Amino acid sequence: MAVKGLGQIDQQYDGSKLRIGIIHARWNRVIIDALVKGAIERMRELGVKEENIIVETVPGSYELPWGTKRFVDRQKKMGEPLDAVIPIGVLIKGSTMHFEYISDSTTHALMKLQNQVQLPVIFGLLTCLTEEQAFARAGIDEGHTMHNHGEDWGAAAVEMSVKFGPNNDF
To answer: Does the annotation mark 98 as catalytic?
Structure first.
């Protein structure tokens, strides 16, 4: 059984002054919708105003790194920079190597992206061996064996923005 949630956080973070972007793939839409909803609900609980949660889409998980970079750049160019961004995608293992290639390349690209955009990029990519695992991690499986990981991503975006975000004066 997997450990659930972020665990003990060192304080309650105030997200009332934050602008956070969510960019999500459209593949595996039922799972994606639950994860996005979980992230938004958790950010709202932490004070992020609904109008400061900006949602964008890309076709699939492989498009997340490029789409995320352009999304962040566009928001900045519009004079409405983000404090963090959560790319959300779901990859489910099939019978070919496609899963491994997409998982690996997307993971590495998202990791590198943080230094390029100089803001927190929360890792919201589920890489599951089965559809059942993905449903569980989205908190929508029949037995509710896990919680919605989107909630963790929303909380992480607020915490990282408050502690280390681009608008945080050290």
So the answer is: yes
